[in-house]
């Protein structure tokens, strides 16, 4: 340890997404290569001497206690824990975090010393992993509200790679296996004999950590919600969700900083007739076992919706991934103008 392959892989993965801005301290981490990166991990982050760094990933993260603050993090997976190296601006983003984060080092702010918070989730405390629709994100759940984190990878490949690495590391943990049920088969494990409906697909790892994947009913619920937002104009049977993707809406900032743009996280849903932008709650659903009341907001809140037939043109930027798309719609105030004219002039 570490092998040449691991060194090369971790070095390749140590790249901050170009569209996201991070603090100087995280830029320093992103500049480390190969052996320097492993030495940095053991010297500054690792809690146990004999743990090994197995995987590195850059991702936006959300915490259960602060569901509205999305922050950039360097996620490090070792044989003992998952470490979230956070942007130091996160500490000042929300006044309600004083009990969640320890601010004893705040006197270092004005010096040349750059501080990062590191949130640690030990693998022994891990209870379940919920994978989001189309592997766009995943939620890691521990034993309390402080130990629930969602990684918004916005990339199915990154999600899949991390889950595979996590399963491999969990296999090394020595946990007493849960008693096996008698005559276990597919139907008794995943199906309800009374209704015949499939539950959410659960994979129980040998370490007793649950990996929960969405089933077809979630897509059905989403289609029903989208149909509601379309004022019932569309038959639910003919409504197909063609695309679900976590994206950013670009809001250009006017004023002194004209060239900068703020990125608003949105869920984009495309159907055969409409394009929707939703504000989605990625951290509160499904409800954790200890939750005593439902979340303050719905899982999906409609931010914008336009008909495809009103789409005038799509402008594509020429930069590399992530691609910027601009949708230009016809600016018609009353969408059903012609229909209303017909009724007023030619019908009683």
From TrEMBL:
<dbReference type="Pfam" id="PF23142">
    <property type="entry name" value="PH_PLEKHM2"/>
</dbReference>
<dbReference type="InterPro" id="IPR057288">
    <property type="entry name" value="PH_PLEKHM2"/>
</dbReference>
<dbReference type="GO" id="GO:0032418">
    <property type="term" value="P:lysosome localization"/>
</dbReference>
<dbReference type="InterPro" id="IPR053015">
    <property type="entry name" value="PH_domain-containing_M2"/>
</dbReference>
<feature type="domain" description="Nischarin C-terminal PH">
    <location>
        <begin position="241"/>
        <end position="347"/>
    </location>
</feature>
<dbReference type="GO" id="GO:0032880">
    <property type="term" value="P:regulation of protein localization"/>
</dbReference>
<feature type="domain" description="PLEKHM2 PH">
    <location>
        <begin position="114"/>
        <end position="178"/>
    </location>
</feature>
<protein>
    <submittedName>
        <fullName>NISCH protein</fullName>
    </submittedName>
</protein>
<keyword id="KW-0963">Cytoplasm</keyword>
<dbReference type="GO" id="GO:0010008">
    <property type="term" value="C:endosome membrane"/>
</dbReference>
<dbReference type="GO" id="GO:0007030">
    <property type="term" value="P:Golgi organization"/>
</dbReference>
<dbReference type="Pfam" id="PF25625">
    <property type="entry name" value="PH_NISCH_C"/>
</dbReference>
<dbReference type="GO" id="GO:0019894">
    <property type="term" value="F:kinesin binding"/>
</dbReference>
<dbReference type="InterPro" id="IPR057714">
    <property type="entry name" value="PH_NISCH_C"/>
</dbReference>
């Amino acid at each position: 340890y570490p092998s040449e392959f691991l060194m090369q892989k971790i070095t390749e993965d140590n790249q901050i997404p170009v569209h996201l801005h991070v603090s100087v301290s995280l830029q320093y981490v992103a500049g480390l290569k190969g052996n320097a990166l492993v030495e940095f991990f053991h010297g500054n982050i690792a809690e146990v001497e004999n743990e090994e760094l197995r995987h590195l990933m850059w991702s936006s993260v959300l915490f259960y206690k602060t569901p509205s603050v999305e922050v950039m993090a360097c996620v490090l997976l070792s044989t003992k824990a998952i470490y979230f190296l956070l942007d130091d601006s996160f500490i000042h983003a929300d006044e309600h975090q004083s009990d969640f984060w320890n601010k004893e080092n705040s006197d270092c702010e004005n010096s040349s010393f750059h501080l990062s918070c590191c949130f640690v989730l030990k693998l022994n405390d891990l209870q379940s992993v919920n994978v989001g629709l189309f592997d766009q994100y995943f939620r890691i759940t521990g034993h309390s509200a402080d130990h629930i984190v969602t990684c918004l990878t916005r990339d199915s490949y990154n999600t899949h790679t991390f889950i595979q690495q996590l399963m491999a590391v969990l296999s090394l943990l020595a946990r007493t296996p849960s008693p096996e049920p008698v005559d276990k088969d597919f139907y008794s494990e995943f199906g309800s004999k009374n209704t015949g409906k499939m539950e959410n697909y659960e994979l129980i790892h040998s370490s007793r950590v649950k990996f929960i994947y969405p089933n077809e009913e979630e897509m059905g619920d989403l289609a029903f919600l989208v149909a509601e937002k379309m004022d019932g104009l569309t038959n639910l049977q003919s409504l197909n969700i063609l695309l679900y993707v976590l994206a950013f809406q670009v809001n250009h900032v006017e004023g002194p900083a004209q060239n900068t743009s703020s990125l608003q996280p949105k869920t984009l849903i495309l159907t055969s007739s409409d394009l929707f932008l939703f504000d989605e709650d990625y951290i509160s659903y499904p409800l954790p076992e200890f939750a005593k009341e439902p979340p303050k907001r719905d899982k999906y809140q409609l931010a914008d919706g336009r008909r495809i037939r009103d789409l005038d043109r799509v402008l594509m930027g020429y930069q590399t991934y992530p691609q910027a798309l601009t949708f230009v719609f016809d600016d018609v105030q009353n969408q059903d103008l012609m229909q209303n004219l017909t009724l007023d002039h030619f019908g009683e």
